[in-house]
Amino acid sequence: LIDVKKDDANTTAPNSDGVLSFSLPNSNNLKGLSLASSNSDSDDTVLMIQTSSAGVSTQRDMSVVIIADSTLMLDDSISDTPTVTSESESLDKTKMIVAEIMANIQSDGNGTEDETVKKTYVNSLITEVTVESSEDEEDFELRLFMRPTVDIGNTSTNLNTSNDGTRVQIRYLCAKYSEKNGKWEEDCTTVYDTEFPADGVICICNHNTSFAVLMSAYEIDRGYAVVQSYLTWVLLGVSTFGLLLTLIFLLPAAELRKTRSAKINICFTVSLILASLLFLIQDLFIKSDNSGVIPLKSVGCAVYAMLQHYLWLVVFCWMIIEGFLMYLSLVQVFGSHISKYMLKFNLAAWGIPIPFPLIGYFVFTKSYTVGEGDGARTFTEHGYLPDTMCFVAPETVPFYALFLAPLIVCIVVNLVFFALVARVIKNSKCSGNISDEEQMLRQLKAAVGVMVLLGTGWFFGIFMSVPTPAFQVYMQYFFILLNSTQGTFVFLFYIVLNEQVKTHWLVKFGLAEPKKTTTSSSAAATKNTTITAVKMPMSTKNN
Q: What is the CA radius of gyration of the chain?
């Protein structure tokens, strides 16, 4: 027990700038506990307490009670942490604790743990803090740095997968003790380095009470099974090959490449290739157990995640541009001329998505510090990156606001465009030659097919978070099948089912005779422009 008075000149507590620090060479013997300088970076520091108001560290009167025996805080759900007297005994006890935690965790079949068999330990000194006048301040903040008493090693390696596919991992949790309920309850923000949990845990709280770090196993992202990973590689490899074939058939054909629709299709295909390739090769560099070349939650992982995020948003932008182009061609015939349209379209498609991943990472990645100077302890909370991959973390604000929302906007806008185009085609009066109308209808179907395919795939990805193991497995397979075959369907819609492209290459290889058409129809077919049944020509060379 220690009382600290901020105005007492004779106090021995180094309460500089509102920081109180304690060192303990042997965490199992409180007799060695002593006050330490807040600027000390000693490995013996087991506890630091920092009080602040409105984000500014301030000195305060406080009393601190430190307890080593967790059984003094009555809670039937907490297992007794064994005491050790030697380093070898400590290692044996640690292995025993980890084995007990991982062996006893079970799933109730609904994606949650069975609390009746769950093992939970107090893995820190219990710290009861009473701070002067803190309860009356809305902006009061209490930060604690607590070093775990039992070193379980890298929590990324303490993984276990049950027969039903449930994955559990040992994690730390800052908790307060409720005397009224006689229970430890989650109440504070918990921040620590999952790769080096023994370095300590930061707890961010806004009240006085007894605090401790709990250690238990919690369900985490199920991830992909081995068979699902192989299925993804095979299908995505075929899909990427289909996208490359799409470019091979479009780029050399100068007559096809001159049209606006072909140029847009080429840009869309290129962006989809880049996004698919990054998704395809990520398993070569990134592993869910953090054994890959790019460590999880590292700067490299953040760059990879932001690049993937950015490229998929570029794909969504090209989808909108494709719908907008059809709208201009068929609905708003007059005034549809756009000077330097490819430059403007490229600036929009590649420029608009840039802020989204930057906002996601830099706004939702927060660093928390306890202490001052060399003795400060800093850990980072990654609100943008998940624990097992380098992409936008699902079920988070960045995912919903910066990835899902743009996808929904893309689909809704294009559905409006396509509905207007479909109505024009339906209401147009047929002329003697309906080849133009048929060609536009095919393009419309292709664009709708690709858009629906892309959107549906990502929507299935959202449902993978539904907390039912069997349902999650089905959603994972749907997600893999749809998202890993996008390139195949792009090749099918834009090349195989495109009569103009097929005719061009059949004539090129001497397998078909060029069709003789009227001047008007020939010009329309050559330019592949979108012309209504009213026969209102547009100059694609200037557009």
A: 31
**For residue 308, what pLDDT is reported?**
94
Beta pairing class for 140-146 and 45-53: antiparallel
Q: Which two tokens stand for residue 285?
A: 């560099």
Q: How large is the average pLDDT for residues 270-295?
A: 85
C-alpha to C-alpha distance for 92 and 95, rounded to whole angstroms: 5
H or E segment at 369?
strand 365-370
Closest by CA to 187, choosing from 223, 154, 253, 142, is: 142
State percent of the chain over pLDDT 90: 10
Q: Which tokens is 439 given?
A: 């060609």
CA–CA gap between residue 203 and residue 199 (Å, rounded): 14
Q: Which helix (H) or strand (E) holds 496?
A: none
Q: Which residues pair with 168 in a beta bridge?
A: 160, 219
Do residues 444 and 423 make contact, with C-beta atoms less than 8 angstroms apart? no
Amino acid at 529: T
What is the SS3 assignment for 10? coil
User: What is the Cβ-side half-sphere exposure of residue 406, based on CA atoms within 13 angstroms?
Assistant: 23
Looking at the DSSP bridge assignments, the partners of residue 4 are: 62
**What CA–CA distance (Å, rounded) separates 63 from 3?**
4
- The three-point CA angle 322-319-280 to 5° equals 135
CA distances from 209 to 54, 175, 177, 430, 520 (A): 20, 10, 7, 80, 84
DSSP 218: E
Those residues whose C-beta lies under 8 Å from the C-beta of residue 433, and which sit 6 or more positions away, are 517, 518, 520, 521
Q: pTM (2 decimals)?
A: 0.75
Measured distance between the N- and C-terminal CA atoms of the chain, rounded to whole angstroms:
80
Q: Are 346 and 436 in contact (CB under 8 A)?
A: no
Q: Determine the Cα–Cα distance for residues 311 and 244; give it in Å rounded to an integer.
A: 17
The pLDDT confidence band at residue 357, using thresholds 50, 70 and 90, is: very high
With a cut of 90, say whether residue 320 has pLDDT above it: no
What CA–CA distance (Å, rounded) separates 183 from 175?
10
